[in-house]
Design a protein that fits this description.
It is a single chain. The chain has a four-stranded mixed beta sheet. It folds into two domains: about 180 residues, no CATH class; about 90 residues. It is α+β, with helices and mostly antiparallel strands. α2 runs antiparallel to α3, α5 runs parallel beside α8 and α6 runs antiparallel to α8. The protein has eleven helices and four strands; from the N terminus they run ααααααααααβαβββ.
Length: about 350
């Protein structure tokens, strides 16, 4: 997830599998409530309409991306409560007073309005609440008890929306701060890990240098003249250290050993790394390493230049052989020869 665009919806995981599971339970609840309302309904098919409208609104909450909610689904959710409530009130009698279960669209639609507040559409949520009150008042007026009667039955639905409003205005500004702090923490941990890895790498290199160079440095510091073999070993050590700086990607044991053997035979070995192999998979690297070792083993005079090319070239590695003849071998990004 991109923390720069993280929202309170991400904080509450509103697009996660658990959220979808809750939407499913919401749908089941709507169906159960509609079935329990059916015995009191004069006509039953509007109950199905109310279920479809409520379930569609709940599914849109967990399926639609964006913060705040995009306008079109927001408008649909805004009117969904009024439509579902009207469908049910149309078929239930006003006298005697309807059983609380018959007013289920108000409670279920209120849940949708609460989450609309959380997702940045507080004004639309209150618009939807007002439309539901208008439906209840009109129902009360048309059926006889009066508009106040209808409002009295449904006014308590405003409480959860009020809480959703407070929650939205309190938590939404904090969501981005929470994710920014999380991103800063992750960057700090990554920097500390990189620093620790660099220290480990430095210690490993110093350890290897101590093992390989200390005996020769001690011998030089003694002031006694070096014999021919010691001078050769000094040259080989210098060349190996140079290779480690110029071509770290080629510093594997088999290449180091082959390069040292070639230099002992009098072959000049040059290795350069311009990073085309940095992202090469292990099997490609192994194929290139075998070819480099073969080239070094086959050289008895002259020079061998192994160069890892810059990224973006058609070839990834080239080997230039200068001896009795001059030859050039190229390897593609799959590790196979291309000329």
């Amino acid at each position: 997830m991109n923390t720069a665009n993280a929202t309170v919806s991400d904080l509450l995981r509103m697009h996660s599998p658990p959220a979808r599971a809750f939407a499913f339970l919401y749908a089941v609840t709507c169906v159960v409530l509609a079935l329990n309302t059916a015995p009191y309904a004069e006509v039953r098919w509007p109950l199905g309409v109310a279920v479809v409208v409520c379930v569609a609104a709940a599914c849109a909450l967990v399926a639609v991306e964006g913060d705040p909610l995009p306008l079109r689904p927001t408008v649909a959710m805004t009117v969904s409560g009024a439509v579902a409530s009207a469908a049910v009130l149309w078929v239930v009698p006003a006298e005697p007073a309807p059983h609380p279960i018959e007013l289920w669209p108000f409670g279920m639609s209120t849940a949708v309005l609460v989450f609309m507040c959380v997702r940045g559409r507080t004004a639309f949520a209150w618009g939807g609440m007002i439309l539901m009150f208008a439906v209840a008042a009109l129902w009360g007026h048309l059926t006889g008890p009066g508009a106040g009667y209808g409002l009295g039955l449904t006014i308590t639905s405003a409480g959860p929306v009020l809480m959703g409003t407070v929650f939205g205005y309190t938590i939404r500004p904090l969501a981005r701060s929470i994710y920014l702090l999380r991103a800063q923490s992750m960057r700090r941990i990554a920097a500390e890990s990189a620093a620790a890895a660099a220290l480990e790498e430095r210690d490993a290199r110093l350890g290897g240098l101590d093992v390989s160079a200390r005996p020769l440095l001690t011998r030089i510091a003694s002031g006694e003249p070096l014999d021919e073999n010691e001078r050769i070993e000094c040259g080989l050590l210098e060349a190996r250290l140079r290779d480690g700086l110029r071509a770290p990607v080629l510093q594997v044991p088999e290449i180091r050993n082959a390069a040292a053997a070639a230099r002992r035979r009098g072959v000049e070995v040059v290795m350069l790394d311009d990073h085309a192999m940095d992202s090469a998979p292990p099997e490609v690297r192994r194929a290139v390493y075998r070819e480099v070792v073969d080239a070094l083993d086959s050289a008895s005079t002259g020079s061998v230049t192994v160069r890892v090319l810059p990224p973006g070239r058609s070839a990834m590695v080239t080997i230039l052989l200068k001896g009795d003849d001059v030859g050039r071998i190229g390897f593609g990004h799959d590790g196979h020869r291309i000329n």
